[in-house]
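job 3f2a | input accepted
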Amino acid sequence: MGYVDTWDEFVERSVQMFRTDPDSTRYVMKYRHCDGMLVLKVTDNKECLKFKTDQAQDAKKMEKLNNIFFMLMSRGPDAEMSEVTGKELTEAQPARKGRGKKQ
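job 3f2a | predicted structure (103 res):
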């Protein structure tokens, strides 16, 4: 149970693990504020993948991985990964209206 070195490898292996055994695969994230460390773990009770980071910009990557797992869990393990892109995600969100003073 070692740590995966690169983000892309972690995502690729995690998605493959989920597609192989979706009923047993679990995804856990843990943030330790005192260390400023984010640890992501994906396991299927046979293999365990872990990725840790202390970089703030990796929070966006984690959000994208969450969306990938949500999509796979809701649409099934055979869903296309190309459906999860930044453009589609922002278009699906409602536009925010500014909070100005009433005139």
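job 3f2a | Residues 58-75 form the longest helix (18 residues).
job 3f2a | closed
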